[in-house]
Design goal:
The complex is a heterodimer of chains A (384) and B (394). Chain A is mainly alpha-helical. Chain A has 16 helices and 2 strands. In chain A, helix 13 (287-314) runs antiparallel to helix 16 (349-383). Classes of the chains: A mainly alpha (384), B mainly alpha (394). At the A-B interface, helix 1, helix 2, strand 2, helix 7 and helix 8 of A face helix 1, helix 3, helix 7, helix 8 and helix 11 of B.
Chain lengths: 384, 394
């Protein structure tokens, strides 16, 4: 530091501008670009560009010919086919005469959504209202499909199957995962042992989980055969009943994903200040009171964030139904991703891309609704 | 604590009180702890049983699988190694020297891979057993994609945590418009893809200054970070169909490179998200003083920042490695024959004419999941130290 020539500012060549700057200096001057360019370029080429390119596929009838692909522009035919045409039963389910029960549910759902829109008029500007209108339209549409298929006793399609995996699956996983985390946050011996054991399923290859569960859930040669026999179920096969297969699928998905909720919620629970809880105990509060009044409000922001991450991943479910049932019986365990893969295998690329796009729209609307109306609210409340 | 003990240790408690009330603060009542241990034990069995069943099934023979459930080796059935031998031994080329040659090939090809990424790892012996080939493919693909993903993701995360970016909104709009133009021209007018993209890129740099001046609005670091993380919402099935066509167009379908790149892109959001949190939490004074001493940005990043975040870096790498090892959907589309990874090979075993040979299947599944379970236990050590969970709380 003592000699004067080490004090020269970096980046400015000591000999003046005439001398070409060295590669290292040039590199350093553009460091801000080089740091971020690879990531942005990769995402642009392999995520953004294909997403746009997918629109072309979705709006075309694509044929393989000798010299490559032939696109024929067909507007929204591939999409319309899913809603009104011959793929309707596969995607939406059998939309038929609505039963009384279905109509009542639909009316109640519409009333609730309209009430929510009316309430939100007061608290957002027009941009927020557009977002809320989109969410409301999606909610009313899903309610209509549920009323017309599920609640009227008709078979449901891949759309509702995917939503079943996402919503029912996430609810079950969240309840059990949080419960286990609560148990492990109590003063018990062997906490680390349980932690390690409970974490393992999350990392096991989903494909391996599918095969393992297929063997374990086997009705005739699986380990629970004596139990099924004792219950008089030896003639019932879950893989032949649509709802049986869906529930088995959901249980296996839960086996894999409960650890994720468990790990995150355990960290949140251990962050709750110990002295708050102990002070309440000394004051004679019951454990239920302590959980409701002290612990729950503090872990709520983490809980909704974890739930959001889990929902995003749940929309992508494909390996389990593919391995365990091949989407069967019929198409009753197919998620939308698997539906798209099967249509692709039948060489109908346009329709496959259209289904993928419908999944993208569904995922984005559901996840951003959840993020905007629930997660952001909780995070703001936690900051305040 | 003394007041608390006083309250709870008052004499003359009835048996019911003793059972249901904690003896002191920070302990559980006897009934509650019994219930807790029972629930935890039930869940432990629920978690471990499928894994146990796969492992013992891999030591069964056809009779032991087909004649009803047998639970305990040596008592219920006689374990044997047939399933394992048929994985590695039926084939004449799958003996020990062949395994050694394949291992050497793995190392050799890894070096070649760095020099020329198009090279595909091919079995030296044409009839080498498929399990070993798939295993080596899986290792090559997941190791290289993890390295690529963590390197690029950590750099981007560091830049977003420390350097201010202000891209012009107008330039972003122009980029999107040009991209759409390239797609339309390529697919409907039949212009070659390399020509249209080159013209579009030239146009972009030519017009960037002009258009950027018109729209002064900029986006900040937070927006870029949110944009990268939100890529995780994108369902892989949306991108995989065009990506298949892209790799087909450049002749890279069914190569390691295609899988490496796609796996890296798929996990980039996670790496950026986690690493950004680590970098943002570092004290900035160290970097500032290094900058005053004349260190370059890369020097600071490599010599000061990365060593400080070593636990976070290790945990992120481990997590990415596991996710890449398990990846299925991209491999289904992009690995058609030569670069089949473990999951693809296992899935292909399902479709047999004579039904599934569960004992052989279980042997492969054990081979596939043993490395992951070891990595998971390693990762768990980081997680219980709270290394990976800061990002969730943000």
């Amino acid at each position: 530091m003592a000699s004067s020539d080490t004090l020269v500012q970096p980046g400015i060549s000591p000999a003046g501008l005439s001398q070409a700057e060295s590669w290292g200096e040039w590199f350093d001057r553009h460091a801000r670009t080089f740091f971020i360019a690879p990531a942005v370029t990769l995402i642009l080429i392999f995520a953004i560009f294909p997403t746009f390119y997918s629109i072309v596929f979705a709006l075309s009838r694509v044929r393989f010919t000798g010299e490559g692909l032939r696109f024929r522009f067909v507007w929204f035919q591939n999409f319309a086919k899913q809603f009104f045409g011959n793929d309707q039963v596969h995607f939406l389910g059998k939309v038929d005469q609505m039963s009384m029960f279905g109509m009542a549910f639909f009316a109640a759902a519409v009333a609730a959504v309209l009430w929510w829109l009316y309430r939100s008029l007061a608290i957002t500007n027009w941009i927020g209202m557009i977002g809320r209108l989109i969410s409301a339209a999606m909610a009313i549409f899903v309610a209509w499909i549920m009323g017309a298929t599920l609640l009227s006793g008709n078979p449901i399609g891949t759309l509702l199957t995917t939503l079943f995996y996402v919503f029912v699956g996430c609810a079950v996983q969240f309840a059990i995962g949080t419960g286990l985390a609560f148990l492990c946050s109590q003063p018990i011996a062997g906490k680390n042992f349980f932690r390690v054991i409970f974490f393992i399923p999350l990392m096991v290859t989903p494909l391996g989980v599918g095969y393992a569960m297929k063997m374990v859930a086997d009705m005739t040669k699986g380990p629970f055969e004596p139990i099924f026999a004792a219950l008089g179920l030896e003639n019932w096969v879950w893989s032949a009943s649509p709802w049986g297969a869906r529930f088995v699928m959901m249980i296996c998905d839960s086996w894999q994903w409960i650890p994720f909720i468990f790990i995150c919620m355990l960290a949140a629970l251990e962050n709750v200040p110990r002295d708050h809880v102990e002070a309440a105990q000394v004051d004679g509060a019951s454990s239920v009171q302590i959980f409701r009044e002290i612990t729950w409000p503090q872990i709520l922001p983490v809980a909704v964030t974890v739930l959001l991450i889990r929902m995003i991943e749940a929309f992508k479910i494909v390996d389990l139904p593919n391995i365990m049932t091949g989407g069967g019986p019929g198409s009753s365990t197919e998620s939308m991703t698997l539906h798209s893969v099967y249509v692709w295998r039948a060489n109908d690329i346009g329709t496959s891309a259209a289904i993928a796009y419908l999944l993208l729209i569904l995922t984005v609307v559901v996840c951003s609704s959840f993020f905007n109306y629930i997660v952001l609210g909780q995070l703001r409340k936690a900051k305040a | 604590m003394s007041e608390a003990s006083f309250r709870f240790e008052k004499s003359g408690r009835s048996i019911m009180e003793r059972m249901f009330e904690p003896p002191e603060v920070g302990r559980m009542s006897p009934v509650a702890s019994v219930v807790a241990y029972i629930l935890l034990a039930v869940w432990t069995i629920f978690v471990l049983f499928p894994i146990y069943w796969v492992i013992i099934t891999s030591f069964k023979d056809a009779a032991a699988v087909n004649q009803g459930p047998f639970y305990v080796p040596f008592l219920d059935f006689q374990p044997n190694l047939d399933a394992w031998r048929s994985q590695f031994n039926t084939d004449p080329y799958c003996d020990l020297p062949s395994v050694a040659r394949q291992a050497w090939l793995l190392v050799y090809n890894s070096f070649v891979f760095i020099v020329s990424p198009v090279v595909t790892l091919q079995p030296m012996e044409p009839q080498i057993c498929k399990t070993l080939l798939a295993f080596t493919n899986s290792i090559v693909v997941s190791v290289f994609s993890t390295a690529l993903c963590v390197a690029i993701g950590a750099m981007a995360a560091y830049a977003l945590a420390r350097i201010q970016y202000k891209p012009k909104f107008g330039n972003i709009l122009m980029f999107v418009a040009l991209t759409l133009l390239v797609i339309a021209v390529t697919s409907y007018a039949g212009v070659p893809w390399w020509l249209s993209s080159a013209v579009a890129l030239a146009l972009f740099f030519f017009l960037a200054r002009t258009i950027g001046r018109r729209f002064q609005a900029t986006v900040g670091n937070g927006d870029i970070l949110f944009w990268i993380i939100s890529q995780r919402i994108l369902p892989p099935i949306v991108v995989v169909i065009p990506v298949y066509m892209m790799f087909q167009a450049v002749g890279l379908l069914d190569t390691h490179l295609a899988l490496v790149v796609m796996y890296a892109v798929a996990n980039l959001p996670i790496v950026v998200w986690l690493m950004h949190d680590f970098f943002a939490n570092l004290p900035i004074e160290l970097e500032e003083s290094a900058q005053l001493d004349g260190a370059t940005r890369f020097g600071i990043f490599w010599d000061i920042v990365l060593p400080l975040t070593r636990p976070g870096l290790a945990a992120t790498t481990l997590l990415t490695l596991i996710l890449n090892w398990n990846e299925y959907l991209f491999a289904v589309f992009l690995a058609t024959a030569k670069v089949q990874t473990m999951p693809i090979m296992v899935a292909a075993k399902n479709a047999g004419e004579k039904g599934v040979f569960w004992w052989e299947m279980c042997a492969i599944i054990v081979v596939m999941i043993i490395p992951v379970i070891f990595m998971a236990i390693l990762l768990q050590r980081f997680i219980s130290r709270g290394v990976l969970l800061g990002a969730v709380k943000g």
